[in-house]
Amino acid sequence: MGRVVLVTGVSQGFGGRLARALCADSGVEHVIGVDVVPPRGDLGAVHFVRADIRNPVIAKVIIGEDVDTVVHTSVIASPGRAGGRTTMKELNVIGTMQLLAACQKAPRLRKLVVKSSTAVYGASPRDPAMFTEDMAPKRMPRSGFAKDAIEVEGYVRGLSRRRPDITVTLLRHANVIGPALDTAMGRYFTLPAVPTVMGYDARLQFCHERDALESMRQTVVDDVPGTFNIAGDGLLMLSQAVRRSGRPTVPIPEFAVSAVGGFFRSSRVADFSPEQVAYLTYGRGVDTTRMRDILGFEPAFTTEEAFADFVRGHTPGLLDPERIGAAERGLSGWLRGEARHG
Questions:
Q1: Closest CA to 174 of 132, 229, 125, 131
Q2: Kindly report the CA angle at 11 between 314 and 30, in degrees rounded to 5?
Q3: Helices (H) and strands (E) in the chain — how many of each?
Q4: Which domains does the chain have, with CATH numbers?
Q5: Is 38 in contact with 10 (CB distance < 8 Å)?
Q6: pLDDT tens for each residue of 158-210
Q7: Entry pTM
Q8: Which of 122, 190, 217, 267 registers the highest number of CB atoms within 10 A of its CB?
Q9: Cβ contacts of residue 244 below 8 Å, gap of 6+?
């Protein structure tokens, strides 16, 4: 018999695509997709169950369906997708706590795969050239998605200690980018004019959406426990990426970055959280030796190739033109006001 897999977050693009890919795998017998809202697209052979992982009822789904593998993809990176920071934290942290409590009670469960992020390493001027999986952030994130991801990973390690019979694999993806995925980083590079922090040129590392998907699928099918950085080879400087995106830059003085970030968040055009601003200031690189040597995964795209594919496949309609226009006019006015007061 093949695996019975439960995938969380299937109404999001990534979770739904992963669930469909697992259905096509010969080692998987049945896939159950869980989310709080029905998916917009067709999930094919995936059996969708409308359930909130923040509710203990998720335990009944896992036990009742004889699930032996849980794949957790629904840690949300952007407050806008969740309806605000409070709801985002509830979904990420409380949802993960309830899901893992359900996993602990499930006697047939043998595997847990969790999608995390290299955001757990933070971004600061004291960072090493490359983070390995055993390193801690030099500056602990105090809020936002990065803080949530650190808490989620802590709960996952706790489950691993309590249920050593479960194979636990945690994948830390670098910023995922590609032609079909709508992410905060993708929205940043599709702005009419890209704001950058004056005097800095961050080092960027990307993971192509196809590599992120395939790394999760392979991890579900194989049994390799541990924590792994997942990213394409090489780094790309922010200035290079902006030039290749074909957008002009708007250099912002460091003292004004938080105000500009607040403007973009309020206009709902792009998510400029403090953690993203730090990343776009200092950048981050991660070592992927363990990914190759232990996990046995080889990305199909380098960082440069992933970004090039994103640029080639960018859909102009990703952002609403009216919202772009309003944001552009507002930003121009704000900058003129700062210049007068400066």
A1: 229
A2: 115
A3: 14, 13
A4: 3-181+208-232 (3.40.50.720)
A5: no
A6: 999 999 999 999 999 999 999 888 888 888 898 888 888 899 999 999 999 99
A7: 0.88
A8: 122
A9: 307, 308, 311
